[in-house]
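Justification of resources, computational component.

The compute hours requested in this renewal are based largely on the per-chain cost of generating structure records like the one below. Each record pairs the submitted sequence with a full structure-token output. That output is archived, and it is also reused by downstream analysis tasks.
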Amino acid sequence: MKEYSYWLDTINKDFLKENDLPKKIDVLIVGFGYTGLNAAIEIAKNGRSVCVIDKNDFGNGCSSKNGGQISNLLKPSLKKLTKKYGFQKAKLIRGEGVNSVEWLIDFIKNENFDCDLKREGRFHGAHTPVEFKKMVSESNNLKENEGIETQIIDKSDQKNEINSNLYHGGVVFPQHASLNAAKYHKDLIEKAIGLGVSVISNCEMVDFKKKLDEFSVLTNKGSLTANNLVVATNGYTSNVTPWLNKRNITIGSYVIATEVLPINFISSLFPTNRHITDTCRVVYYFRPSPDRKRIIFGGRVSSREISLSKSAPLLLKDLKRVFPDLPELKISHSWMGYVSYTFDHLPHTGSEDGLYYSMGYCGSGIALSSYLGMKLGKKVIGDNDGETAFDSLKFPTRPFYNGRPWFLPAVVELYKFRDSREMKRYMN
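The structure output for this chain reads:
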């Protein structure tokens, strides 16, 4: 079993050349994930000099480690957001999720990126009959109030979507999509470099200070000054930026890829080739690989962070819970990455004391990080088109929280207990 992302075996990983750190730059971006690179591309297109640094090498951040699912739904519902912000503001906030997917798909197509983009939709399974009833009601509201297309799937028709009896029906979101995470990540880096962006790996920001209208930044490879500083570290945010760290809830998400399986067997499990999620509180996500030869299966397997050798068999056990008739099979790859959640379950973007940021995608990062990265780039260059519905939202934290989610193990165990109890109640 290889302890790194399966996606990395589908690309040439040694494409980044060594670059020297510049002494002065218009814009320094910290983090070369989807957020930082989309910001860099937007800024560089407008003639500014840009340097992007990352404390890791390519492939070590979540932009090459995610499951590749592209969703247009934010975590809080329209109803919940309406209670807090009013109906019109809530619609604008929710609408940014839809905007992000449409923008990303157009961007990938216009750039001719070769990243296995497929728009075949998502099946969201109900883990209990009660959840299915909620789904039907919410689906009707999505269509009526937000114009989001859905298709209700009764349990009797479920095997046309997924060859499993685990769920009690579900909803299809046909506008959702998927891609190869590392191919898209590599495409972004090569696009940025083509625009003159300096991309430097294994370069960690150690400290920074704002002096009048510029930033003085210290890294492990030297120091530099920048007119603007952008922090795009998301799930890898540290106390170097304490204001952001106190608002960031880092959660590890674990993924496996199976050994190569017959394509007709994969097709029997996933007849429509959609990616799958469900209504459990502890989130799992799974899909066929783009070549339909493997199953990619991910989620949260433990209350605490654990080793890849321990997470892999736990994920395989949950995969067999979905597909009980699976034959004995081996895991080819096991990996994990850190995602960023927030206390209000919304992404946040803007600037604080001259420092630009965007983070907190709460598990829907491919579209949101790309879209908000682009918008962040527009903010930096002073383009009014960089405005989003998230700009005016307060970025909450909690008293005495320092960026270490000490409460996470207890919450995960409680959620796992509730999920298991509810599913057992309705087992055939």
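The chain has a mean pLDDT of 95. DSSP finds ten helices and 18 strands in the chain.
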